Amino acid sequence: MSTSNKMTSNSVLNKIIIPAILVLFVLLIVLYGHISSLYRDNFKAQVAAKAQVEQLKLAGFWSGYGQLAKQFIHSPHNIQWFSQHTERGKDVSDDPKYRLINQSMNTLSEQAPSIWSAFFATEQTGEYFYNDRIVGEKDNYFTYKRPWYKEDVKRQSVGLVRTTVDYTTGRVSSVISGVVRGPEGKLLGVAGLDIKWQALAGQLNQNENELTLIVSDDNKLVMASPGSVLQHIRITTPPIDYDGNPSKESQKPELTAAKIHHPLKDFDSDAKTTGFADWVAKKREQPAGYVEVTYAGDNYALSYLPLSLELPEVQWAIAYLTPLKPLKQQILSLQIKLVLFGLFFALMLLVMFGFYAKSSKSKTV
Hints:
Layout: H1 3-73, H2 76-84, H3 96-111, E1 115-122, E2 128-130, E3 133-135, H4 147-154, E4 159-165, E5 172-181, E6 187-196, H5 197-201, E7 211-215, E8 221-224, H6 253-256, H7 276-285, E9 289-295, E10 298-310, E11 313-323, H8 325-364
Antiparallel strand pairs: 1-2, 1-6, 2-3, 4-5, 5-6, 7-8, 7-11, 9-10, 10-11
């Protein structure tokens, strides 16, 4: 090959082939950033859509029971009888008006299987009335001494107030309650409905690879979807009862997955779980959004929305967690494809250059 042809080949290599390969890889990097960003945006949108589905299901569930609770709480018959019931421990089993109230409590449970019981906690006698039973004198129980009762009296609306372990039965339930006032605004007590924990859990997503969390306004866990990975979180704090005390029922199987009332930020105390404290901090500033957390050793995308209702009044939040693994696999596949394409294109350019150099040499000869 003559010196001029050799210089021409080097010129083509230096001025065309190498710059073309460099430009190609720059374009591939830009393309990778753009497409991976689209993948992430699409993934976030899918998780947000799932969170919204959960939000709508729960809103519908609670709205229906909120209406039932309101009707029971403001029942004129209840108001009339309890305004006249002033003797603690009195045998009212033969009172036809009490029987009518008790029948209405039982009817609510029978017609709505999701209701454990209806209840009326009296101010005047300190007794707790619910389906076929009165808790009071024999149990040394006074409703107005209970922290939950005092908290409920402070509210003026029918609200979804807590998920707790029942004092008398050990059952886990979510409570919709409201203050009852008689003539001239006299406080008669607190009434409401105990909704089965299982009924609420049944509204949540049942995919064991994904997870729905219901979070209270003070950033404590209310409930997690059944069959979820939450059981792997090593939380030693037991659930609490109506009065805020550790429940004796905390060893029940149905409670082991719930971890109710546990602060979200404390989830990070588990060695394999991180990001929840940061989420709590972000949620205070941004009521809806997206974060990524590590949960039981796996990476999750977490989309959260407010769960806000007027009846029953509630200011909670719903969070939907789904594994990040599919997104990472999709991005990894994109990386491999682009790298292979880049190498193939670079190889083709080099092959073309080889043919060009060989052709130039043969022409010289």
